């Protein structure tokens, strides 16, 4: 097969707020080759990722992502890896390229899986896919009382695990302690409790460490992204004193190096990879195998549609011991409507990685129309993008 | 003062080739506040960096760079640092933001310097600026013979140091040895010889190490970017066996963490910072002070106009022991014509950091017109950018 076209669909809710809710817009990628279609999703900032695909070349090491994709051969996984290497080299000085390529790479696995009648996880080298324990991923309430209610609702919905994240966490120590107590109370004594600080402490190890006693008392399983994504020294310093609370991070990784460093230098116990940022399924699987070898647990990161969710599960589908998975709840209508198929917990509350060919998730043509954001990019009077 | 406007000028040569020549296009930034104008330059991919300034918000942690800049107060260096922190947090998930912000940040120092009648290096905390020894920065010739001729020309032009880089280096060991011998022969026995591999060896430590004997024999001062920008382990492994040849790197750093890791973990002897990528002068100066404390030499990285050259010199202007500086030669007419002032070697072949207010370099209005690339970005029927 030859890659004939790569199309981008910028979708958005009518209004986007400053909430840390990644399901408010989406950039869907459609790749066509050999009469087949593959779907992927880039995370985030659709306009900028589109620009990184169509931009004029600045020089040989700053070419648009399209230069390493269009017209290329797609017969097997090695062809995807070859394109990934070319994007890394040819778009070395184009920072956004990794995010753009991530959605394209996903779509290539989807397409290749459909051509072979195999799920993507099998193409990645796994013999079977193990079910995962989903954690409900929600934002902290504005008050501890709201968080208590959210935690109770999650428990009532049958989830065994829940993650609370972002503001107002980090604003004050006493407020954070109230939030942690509320989350544990609402979730009940047996629930797995996860906390996401959303990088609020920058590099301030002491500020983050001040939250540890209340986390230990509330049996928090992981303390996620206390620091900026690349603050390896701060991660390492906190990990050395965090006791029973593991440190988690990695969603910002836009290449396999960053994830490896968080494991090897940052001392995280959980490495969280967003396939829409790290360059897709290939590098994510590399990170999963590295994590497994180092005794670190791999976890997907995803906060958008079920297409991105399926992609995020593939790289560790075959790793039985890596059980927990992020499962966004409270998605915006756009993210819910985007996919024809849904990934829903079974009777025991477990998530199954799709075993249909590719990513196993088709995109709704109606949603592409309903939520479409018209975009036009013109350079030197020539239309580089219009949709 | 209040930041009233931020304007971008996408400039380009009529034709852009795949040569590793960063002077073929440019993104110039103009910031206006308090009746004054400041100039900066982003590196690279103008269209994508413009998009990162004007893009619609995806969510609270994925806002365009404009959200942390427009309307902000600018009275002193702390205001610039506060904006930098806001960009890092509010645009956390917008990968390109660091490159966009870099040019804006430069322009803010230029503007603040003009308001106070002080050169930027003084605002950065230095009492005086020391002259630098420029190295002529050129690409390898296609053949060893061409490289020999380029090296002879550089010597004849009075340079004491020269850097040769990129393809065909890395294509074959014997070819590389011929190139190294030719560069040394042309430069003469006393010239400082620097080699830039342009990341060609990926993570392959053995392939890079195979070039070391010919480098030692030719007294190469540094071996630059043998590996991908974040391949810290490979850098460290090569540094431990490179003997008299120092390893250099850092131009890809788009935050202070990456540069620090190359020093602390990658074992580089020279840390090369591009102010158009790392977030401007502020983080670059932090890296310079960290390097000095660790016995590592700071070097500017720049391959575009004299505006970017001036910016790149400011963060280590006051560090006397850090003598060498990148000085692009063979610039495209666009990069030459862009600035009213030029930074030229003095009678002894030394470069002086401008001591005029700000960056000390004015942009030519004629060049902005001559090389202008018309761009229009429309989203939802609304023009987000037009120039």
Brief account:
The structure is a homodimer of 387-residue chains. Chain A is α/β, with parallel strands linked by helices and 387 residues long.
Relevant terms:
homodimer, 387 residues, alpha/beta, eight-stranded parallel sheet, three-stranded antiparallel sheet, 13 strands, globular
Structure commentary:
Two copies of one chain form a homodimer. Chain A is of the alpha/beta class. Chain A has 14 helices and 13 strands. Chain A has helices at residues 46-54, 77-90, 97-116, 120-123, 144-156, 173-187, 205-209, 212-217, 232-239, 256-264, 281-293, 306-313, 333-337, 365-370, and strands at 3-12, 25-33, 36-42, 133-139, 161-165, 192-196, 220-224, 246-249, 270-273, 297-300, 324-328, 375-379, 382-386. Chain A has an eight-stranded parallel sheet with strand order 10-9-8-7-6-5-4-11. Chain A has a three-stranded antiparallel sheet with strand order 1-2-3. In chain A, β4 (133-139), α5 and β5 (161-165) form a beta-alpha-beta unit. Chain A is globular. In chain A, 61% of the residues are buried. The model of chain A has no long low-confidence stretch (mean pLDDT 97). At the A-B interface, α1, α2, α10 and β12 of A face α1, α2, α10 and β12 of B.
């Amino acid at each position: 097969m030859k890659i004939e076209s790569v199309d981008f669909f910028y979708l958005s809710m009518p209004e986007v707020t400053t909430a840390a809710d990644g399901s408010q817009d989406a950039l869907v990628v459609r790749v066509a080759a050999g009469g087949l279609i593959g779907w992927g999703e880039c995370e985030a900032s659709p306009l900028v990722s589109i620009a990184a695909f169509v931009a004029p070349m600045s020089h040989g090491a700053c070419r648009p992502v399209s230069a390493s994709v269009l017209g290329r051969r797609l017969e097997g996984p090695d062809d995807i890896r070859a394109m990934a290497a070319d994007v890394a080299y040819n778009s070395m000085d184009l920072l956004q390229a990794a995010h753009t390529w991530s959605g394209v790479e996903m779509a290539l696995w989807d397409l290749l899986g459909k051509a072979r009648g195999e799920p993507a996880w099998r193409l990645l080298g796994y013999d079977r896919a193990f079910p995962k324990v989903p954690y409900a991923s929600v934002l902290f309430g504005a008050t501890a009382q709201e968080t208590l209610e959210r935690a109770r609702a999650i428990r009532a919905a049958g989830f065994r695990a829940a993650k609370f994240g972002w503001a107002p966490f980090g604003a004050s120590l006493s407020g954070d302690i109230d939030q942690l107590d509320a989350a544990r109370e609402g979730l009940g004594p047996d629930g797995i409790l996860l906390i996401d600080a959303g990088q609020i402490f920058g590099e301030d190890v002491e500020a983050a460490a001040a939250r540890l006693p209340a986390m230990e008392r509330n049996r928090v399983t992981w303390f996620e992204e206390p620091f900026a994504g690349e603050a390896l020294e701060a991660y390492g310093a906190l990990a050395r004193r965090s006791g029973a609370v593991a440190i988690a991070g990695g969603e910002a990784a836009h290449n396999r190096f960053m994830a490896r460093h968080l494991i090897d230098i940052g001392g995280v116990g959980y490495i969280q990879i967003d396939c829409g940022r790290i360059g897709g399924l290939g590098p994510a699987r590399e990170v999963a195998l590295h994590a497994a070898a180092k005794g670190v647990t791999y976890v997907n990161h995803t906060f958008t549609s079920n297409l991105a969710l399926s992609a995020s599960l593939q790289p560790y589908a075959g790793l039985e011991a890596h059980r927990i998975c992020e499962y966004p709840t409270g998605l915006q209508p756009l993210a819910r409507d985007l996919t024809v198929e849904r990934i829903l917990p079974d009777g025991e509350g477990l998530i199954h990685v799709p075993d249909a060919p590719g990513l196993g998730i088709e995109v709704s043509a109606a949603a592409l129309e309903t939520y479409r954001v018209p975009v036009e990019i013109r350079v030197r009077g020539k239309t580089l993008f219009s949709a």
